[in-house]
Structures are given as C-alpha cells and as structure tokens.
Specification:
Radius of gyration of chain B: 22 Å
Strand content of chain B: under 5%
Number of strands of chain A: 2
Order of helices and strands of chain B: HHHHHHHHHHHHHH
Structural class of chain B: mainly alpha
Oligomer: heterodimer
Helix content of chain B: over 70%
C-alpha cells in the first residue's frame, strides 16, 4: 500500500512538467506548426527561475521573469517559423541547442557547476488540499503537490474549452487543418499560429518553473532530459486532443515512477522501465496509422 | 558559377557570418577582444600543422554523420536517429573490439565495422518499415528511439559490460588489434582516409547512379515518383539502411580511433549525430558541401578548447555560435528563385489581381 501510494505520487510528480508541455504544445500542433523547441523553452524557464530566485524571494517576480523569457523565445520561434516560413524542425533544434549553451556560458562565467537558490525548501511549495488529502488513493494523486501541478490539472480543462468552445480555438484548428480555407475566409493565419506558439511558450515556462524552482531550487544544465520530446510524442499519440494527450503524459509519469520505485528491489534492470512508454508510443502510432490507411485501395504513396 | 549556385553559397555563408558577428558582440560585451579570440580559434585549428591534423582527425566521424543525414534529407526523410545509431554502432564496435580475440588487426577492425554498420542498420530498419508501410512519421519514431537506445546502452555499459576496474561507467578498453594507429606523429589515423573514401562513394552514388536520381525524384514528389513506377517504399527502406550504416560506421570509427571504450559521454554534448545535422544543413545536403562543412565545424570544435585555454572566454561561446548558425540556416536569407525586384513585382501583381477579383 505504501509502495502504491509512493508510485502514484511519483507518477503525478513526474507527469507534471510533461503534461504542461503537452498542453502548451498541442495548440501549436493544432495550428500546423510542430514546436520541437518545447525542450529548450522549458530549460530556459528552469534556468531563469532559479537565476532570479538567487537574488530575490519574490515569487511573483520569479514567475514573471521566466514567463517573459519564454515568451520572447516563442516570439523568435514564431517570427522565423510563421512569418519567415523557415523549417520548424531546424528552428526548434537551434533553440534547443542555444539555451543550454547560453546557460552553460553563464554558469562558466559565474564559476559554478550549477545554480542553487539556498532559501528554497521544496516542502514549502507543497499545497495540501483539506478534504481530498485524507482519501486513501486520491489523496496521493491530487494533494500535496506544488502549484505547477494544480495549474497543469486545471489547464486540461482550459485547453479543451479553448480549443473546442471558443472562436480562437476553432480558428486555430482551421488554420492547421485547412490553411487555404482559412485564408479564403480572411482568417489571419499568421496571428493565430503565433498565438498558439506563445501559449506553448507560456506553459513551457511553468513546466520549467515546476522542474527546477518548485521541486529543488537547483538548476543543472540538461535537467529537462528530453521531457520536451516526450511531450511531443504524447501530443502526436493523442492527435493533439487535450484529454487524450494528457493520458499519454500520465502513462509516461507512471513508467518513470515504476522505474524509480522498483529500482530498489530489482536493481539496475529497473532502468529499462524507462523505455516502455517510448515503445508503447511507437506501437500506438503504428496501430493508429495502420487503421487509417487500411482503406487505401490504390497503389499509391502518401 | 551561375547565379543559382551563388545564391546557394550565400545562403550557407551568411548565417555563419551573422553568428560569428553576434558571438563577437557577446565577447565585446564581456570585455574581450573578439578578433583575438577568433584568431586563436581558427589560427590554431586550421593554420598550424598540428591544429589542422587535429581538426581533420575530429572531422572524420563528423563527415560520416553529416552524410548519414544528408542522404535522407534529399528524399525528404528526417532520420533524427543518427545519434542513437552512432552510439549503438560505437558500442557494438567496442564490444567486438574488447571481447573478440583476433590475430589479424585488419580483420578485427573489419569485423568491428561490420558489427557497427549492422547495428546502425538494425536501428534504422524499424522507422524505415513503419514509414514505408504504415505511414508513421519517421521523425518522431527516430527521435524517441534515440532515448530508448541511450537508456539501453547506459544499462548495458553500467551493468553487464561494465569495466569493473574503472571508477566511472565505462566498458572495457578495446584490444590493441582493434585500435587505429596514428599516422606519423599527428593525431590522424587511417579512419580519416576511410571517411574520405566513403565520402567519394556517396558522392558517386548520388551524382552518377540511377539510385541517386531516384532519391532526388522521391524527394521532389513522392506521389509522382510512385506513379511513374519508382518503387518509393523499397527505396525509402534502402535509404534509411544506408543512413543507419553510415552512422554506425561513424560510431565505430570514433570508437577505434579516438575513444577506445564506451563511456556515457562517448559522443560528447551535443552528440556527433546532432553535429551531423548542422553539418548537413550547412553543406546544403550535398556530399561536397558536407565534407567542407564537417571540416569547418570540426575546426570550431577544436577551436573551442583553444579559446578556453588561451583566453578567459568560456568555451560555451562556440556552442552559442553553433546554435545561432542553425537558427539562421533555418530560413532562406536570400530567396532562391526571385531577386528582390522580381519578388516585389510578383507581390504587386498579386495585389492587383486581388483587387480585381473583389471588384
């Protein structure tokens, strides 16, 4: 029971940054721009939050500064990808390369191996929710997490409503699915694509904050460890639908939690648990796609 | 050289110039002399015998990694798994080099290369088949398989194949028969010559054979190619296998000429596979371009160490410059088809047409 509780708690813990990235990235995905830079933006959020936290304890300032930097990155991405029609994959890779380089540069200049905000004690960010806290299993899932986790839960609904119930969401989807139709209706495609990318940047900042500032108060280079790419995979598997994609993010969280908690019993082999979600994802993609192309009768290539 | 090629060349050179300029700006901001820093960086990596041979030595796996990516780019495929394939190839070469005993150095190396190429091909086969027959995006599959590969190799290197004597995670050092020896007292090894030979082969394959033209056609319009009777699926699988094999060989060569055992930082950070991506972009996906870009890139890499050694500038500055180069490469700084005048005319015509249709 104790083990189960810990696994569930860890699953949510590891899911949070991925979930935030998923929810941010799916807007751009729906607008037809694949945002590979999620990883770099998240890292930027982590870096700036701890950097600022070293000099001030003002939470609002910490949040705002890291959101600001990520939004600037989002604007650069949007300008090159949307206005200049650059190759989005290459832009994303470039941002993913520049951020750790800049962070490493700053670390080198300051002469430290990693950033630490000493006043941060992760326990003080944990928020217990009064009633839910005492329910056996739900309590571990929904209580005792930092703010970022609650934002991520909340954002699932916000994203779903935004995408399917508002003008903004509908226009964004049209821009992605039928660019020419959008143009003929006079929808300003560039504006909607840019906004979609900026939402992604914003949530990546929150993901980064969660990863470094809320959990540890420490920044090390490369601490995002491919979470942005996992998020992209989850978006692909869920076809950009908020609830479905979130489910995949949760699967990743569970796998991670299993890998960590079982490594105590199983030893090194438990590390291999980490590859299960990836393989699962590839299988799901293959099955999905296989069903789609089943109806093709002509000898053709897509 | 006609106009088209000139524009192409400018589109490769301008991003480098811009990136170096911004890098210089950062250095000035920190109170360093950028000219001195760049002088040390390129002077010591290109214009001394020692530096140049060093650069060429480091360029050997980069050439192959660049070719591995360029070859798939031409067909509009994105093999983002080059890094994973390279690691797998390097690891397999390390295992063959360390655990198999052979008297002939030549055969031993050949066996290691074969194992590495097979490993790279095996890794590339799954995304290739999924892409060709189930229409699964090969980019996502290769990206995720990279992580799978890294996790598996980390487990293997720190578990079953760990060198118990070492204080850090590493496999056993390969036997002497599997090590490339240096040429003269430079750091160059015969692996560089192998790289150049493979480069020539790839150049021949792309420019002079039917397969090369088929790839070109598939890249331009796969549906049309299929309709005219080119076997697109079969060629996609072939192409990915070639790419995987090249990446595997790059890893094996890096293992046998530079690293000699598999550690967790085997291909550096960012890895050789990712460097190959930039090299391919910089070289415009043509074999000759890749060769030149690989040497340039390698000079940046060896130059980074010198910059750290001789000036107070952190060597991350080079990584920033690399990232900026890629960022600027992502867009066409100069339009390929129209000059600015023609573009302006086309725009005006379109506007007039729009106005006409409204009326």
């Amino acid at each position: 029971m104790d083990l189960l509780n810990r696994i569930l708690y860890d699953a949510v813990y590891h899911m949070t940054p991925i979930l935030l990235c998923v929810l941010g990235g799916l807007f751009a995905y729906k607008a037809g721009v694949l945002n590979i830079a999620l990883e770099g933006m998240m890292l930027a959020g982590s870096f700036i939050s701890v950097l600022v936290a070293m000099y001030t304890q003002n939470a609002l300032l910490i949040y705002l500064s890291s959101i600001f930097v990520c939004v600037v990155l989002g604007l650069v991405f949007a300008f090159l990808a949307v206005n200049k029609r650059g190759n989005v994959i290459i832009i994303g890779l470039a941002i993913n390369m520049i951020i750790p380089a800049v962070a490493g540069f700053v670390l080198q200049t300051m002469g430290v191996p990693n950033l630490t905000a000493k006043w941060i004690n992760p326990a003080m960010f944990r928020i217990d929710i009064p009633l839910i806290k005492d329910i056996p299993i739900l309590g571990r899932l929904f209580s005792g997490h930092p703010l970022g986790t609650y934002i991520s839960f909340f954002m699932i609904f916000v994203a779903a409503v935004l995408l399917y119930k508002t003008k903004f969401g509908i226009y964004t989807r049209v821009v992605g699915e039928r660019p020419l139709a959008a143009k003929s209706l006079g929808i300003r495609s560039n504006l909607y694509a840019t906004l979609a990318i900026l939402i992604g940047a914003l949530l990546c900042a929150v993901a980064g904050l969660n990863l470094s500032y809320e959990r540890l108060g420490i920044y090390t280079n490369g601490m995002t460890a491919g979470r942005g790419f996992i998020a992209i995979a989850a978006i692909y598997c869920g076809k950009g639908e908020p609830v479905k994609s979130s489910l995949y993010a949760f699967i990743f969280g569970i796998a991670r939690a299993l890998a960590i908690n079982l490594s105590i019993r199983a030893g090194g082999v438990a590390a291999l648990f980490d590859i299960i979600p990836y393989l699962l994802m590839i299988i799901i993609l293959a099955i999905n796609s296989g069903f789609q192309i089943r109806n093709y009768r002509m000898r053709t290539y897509w | 050289m006609n106009r088209f090629n000139l524009v192409k060349l400018a589109n490769s050179l301008l991003p480098v110039a811009f990136a170096l300029l911004i890098g210089a700006g950062i250095m000035v901001g920190m109170g360093h002399n950028p000219l001195e820093a760049y002088g040390i960086m390129f002077g010591r990596s290109l214009f001394t015998v020692r530096g140049l041979t060093n650069t060429l030595h480091m360029a050997s796996p980069l050439i192959l990694a660049g070719l591995a990516i360029a070859v798939t780019f031409r067909a509009n495929l994105f093999n983002m798994g080059v890094e994973g394939q390279l690691l797998f190839g390097g690891f397999m070469a390390g295992i063959v080099g360390a655990y198999i005993q052979m008297s002939s150095p030549l055969l031993h190396k050949l066996l290691a290369f074969l194992a590495a190429a097979a490993a790279g091909m095996l890794f590339a086969l799954l995304p290739a088949l999924l892409r060709a027959f189930l229409r699964v995006d090969e980019m996502v599959v290769t990206l995720t398989l990279n992580y799978v590969m890294m996790t598996i190799l980390e487990y293997l290197a720190s578990g079953p194949f760990r060198n118990q004597g070492a204080g850090y995670v590493s496999t056993n050092t390969i036997r002497e028969t599997a090590m490339f020896s240096r040429i003269g007292n430079t750091r160059l090894t015969p692996f560089f010559i192998i790289s150049v030979i493979i480069f020539l082969l790839m150049w021949f394959l792309q420019k002079k054979t039917r397969f090369g033209y088929t790839v070109e056609a598939i890249g331009k319009n796969p549906q049309f190619s299929e309709a005219t009777g080119l076997r697109v699926r079969r060629n996609i699988v072939k192409l990915m296998l070639i790419s995987g094999a090249l990446a595997g060989i790059a890893g094996a060569g890096h293992m046998m000429s530079h690293e000699f055992n598999y550690t967790l930082s085997f291909s550096g950070n960012p890895g050789i596979g990712w460097d190959g991506m930039l090299i391919s972009l910089l070289g415009g996906h043509s074999p000759l371009g890749v060769l030149i870009a690989a040497v340039f890139y390698s000079s940046l890499k060896t130059g980074a160490d010198n910059i750290n050694l001789y000036t107070g500038i952190p060597k991350e500055i080079v990584a920033i410059i690399q990232g900026l180069i890629i960022l600027f490469l992502s867009i066409q700084l100069i339009e390929q088809r129209f000059g600015p005048v023609k573009r302006w005319r086309a725009k005006r015509q379109m506007k007039e047409a729009e106005r006409g249709s409204v009326e």
